[in-house]
Amino acid sequence: MPDDAFSALSFPMSWYPLCRSSEVKHGQVIARQAFGLPLAVFRTESGRVGAIHAECAHMGADLARGQVVGEHLQCPLHHWEYSQGGQCERIPGYAAIPSRARQAAFSCEEHYGLVYAFLGAEPLFGFPRFQDEDPTLYSRAYVMDFETPYQVLAANSFDSQHFATVHHRTLLEPPALTSVSPYHLCVQFRARVDGGHFHDRFLRLIGVDVVELSAHCWGGNNILAYNARTEARILFTLLPVNAQCTRVFILNVMAERTAAALPRPLRSMALEAMHFLTIAFLTADIAVMRDLQFRLGVLLPEADRAFIEWVKYWKALPPASGLANEAAR
Asked: Does 329 fall in a domain?
């Protein structure tokens, strides 16, 4: 594995989280940074969400300071109006609109209370969701910023050594790797719970002394994690704000089977308890991952096998080079 495996950062075509859905009210626009670009994220009067490059094609005014007019985003300076697809569809006093009067735009969808944008001309794969999930039960996303390249954080789920050193999970067998798509890679671990933290003791108290974990990575930045013993589902979804800064969204999703076994008043409480335990489990990761910059040197073929395979997978993902062109619709 060459030393510069992570040095030339590119952003693969994938679904990236921009913000919580609740942050974009009807008829409003907010500013966000993503992929090194300023974005204007807005919700039209009909409730649809759009995300476009925030520097107006006319004179570069900040579209995030504009306003929503019906289904369009209006520039604050000269009132040019842009559609969700980035095309200027109205210029006051002009009938003929130049073909170049357009913005880079992103296909947007909302899942788990988050607004997602697909980086690329057209989505290459549907947004990944958990199997057997209760679509109404998911926690509010826990959000953190790291001065760390996003792929460093994404690769962490495939670093089997850190489960033993950081999380005190002793692997009982080598991790298994599978893939169902060029945009997907899954790792499965079976490990003994050896830690002494509260969440470790709690698991053993409820009879879970061995965990069976799987992490499904889609597009290099979305990780759907399952715990087969507890039926916990955790979504880690990453936004590269720029080459060195990453925003991480973490939330829990409840399985239909788990929800069906609980009285309705207890479901939200159980979900919040799961989310609390998830963040407690990740506290050690949060401490060691801040400002981390991988300098890949001596990798161990067996101990680092899952990590090495993730790096190969990530490097093979189709990149969205030339963001303004690739994202333009």
From this structure: no
